[in-house]
Design a protein that fits this description.
By secondary structure, this protein is mainly α. It has helices at 9-26, 28-35, 45-64. It starts with 8 loop residues before the first helix and ends with a helix.
């Protein structure tokens, strides 16, 4: 797993993506439970928390150009 470099927002985003993919591959059933949509229009607390982290990681490189 690659360590995030807090000084480089693009590297931080890459490291976060790698971490999410590694987690999904290592825990496919749990990943499906966390991020699957059992019913249209509903989300889990785990999904919301993950999206919040992802959004933060995307905003940093976007703000830096």
């Amino acid at each position: 797993m690659r360590e995030a470099d807090p000084c480089d927002p693009v590297e931080d985003l890459r490291a976060g993506w790698d971490l999410a993919v590694e987690f999904g591959l290592a825990n496919p059933v749990l990943y499906a439970l966390m991020y699957g949509e059992p019913k249209r229009g509903t989300t889990s607390a785990a999904f919301a928390a993950g999206m919040q982290i992802l959004t933060g990681r995307i905003r940093r490189p976007a703000a830096g150009g």
